[in-house]
């Protein structure tokens, strides 16, 4: 890798400074590393393993420089805790240590570290290694985000929805908090395609997805393309009243697009129908029940004339 190139040149599409977390109980080391990286990275610092874990939960870095020998919790323990934690993002960890035994090095790799740097720190070496690993990490992030997006509408795809569902389901089980799912389907979309053409149909899918995406405000709310003309809106921490409100806003956002649909039996404009299911998941319950329940409500909304919402609350 050419160290003369800037990180922005190496990672096309990079819109922010990479985040580097330095974890060391010796402030003199932290200061030294900060001097090396402060221009290219957004640097955060922790002086104990516990503090590092708390900071990662709130705002995970893109890469971590982790001291092995620290009081209370050593670097190996931090690494183990990071692996066990359900962090929203994984990131590479480079161990920094005064020990230079082969067994220490082997242990570091076994714990999941990507690299191992020995003290005294050589600024050129540490800089080159951090750059190499952070470029790989950010390139992977970009590829991953492409793999998780629906090519036509730009919202997350079915694969990502499945992941998000599992993630939020487990979180809701732990917190005993409500999780709502809204399944949305465009009304008489086959008629739309048949009369206005497939390209016009594709544009409608994009416009509808964009309009609905703007309705979602909370960071954990998500909209995914669930199937051909079906979307799924996942609302963690949202009860039945909140989900009903959001569903009505989704319907309204599509009505406001005022897309003519002369061949719809539910009005002269394009509309959607929605089925909502809400649950506080119990131990042993699975997410597939929530999806099936929302799907059944969507079927009811279609059956009851379309352009409407039907809802159920499942017992946890
Ligand atoms: N243009 C376009 N059409 C799609 C895409 N994916 C699915 N469709 C179409 O969506 C239509 C779905 O039709 P149906 O399942 O019969 O449902 P509908 O006509 O919307 O009727 P109701 O759901 O009962 O209101 C089919 O014509 C599919 O070809 C896509 O990516 N682009």
At a glance:
With 316 residues, the chain is an alpha/beta fold. The chain is built from eleven helices and ten strands. The longest helix is centred in the middle third of the chain and has 25 residues, at 123-147.
Polypeptide structure, described:
The chain has 316 residues and is α/β, with parallel strands linked by helices. The chain is 46% helix and 18% strand. It folds into 2 domains: 7-146, Rossmann fold (3-Layer(aba) Sandwich), CATH 3.40.50; 158-313, Alpha-Beta Plaits (2-Layer Sandwich), CATH 3.30.70. It has helices at residues 7-10, 27-37, 49-58, 75-84, 102-110, 123-147, 158-175, 189-196, 198-215, 240-255, 287-303, and strands spanning 19-23, 42-46, 63-67, 93-97, 115-118, 179-186, 222-225, 230-236, 272-279, 309-313. Helix 3 packs parallel to helix 4 (75-84). It is elongated, with a radius of gyration of 25 Å.
SSE blueprint and pairings:
Blueprint: H1 7-10, E1 19-23, H2 27-37, E2 42-46, H3 49-58, E3 63-67, H4 75-84, E4 93-97, H5 102-110, E5 115-118, H6 123-147, H7 158-175, E6 179-186, H8 189-196, H9 198-215, E7 222-225, E8 230-236, H10 240-255, E9 272-279, H11 287-303, E10 309-313
Parallel strand pairs: 1-2, 1-3, 3-4, 4-5, 9-10
Antiparallel strand pairs: 6-8, 6-9, 7-8
The structure holds guanosine-5'-triphosphate (GTP).
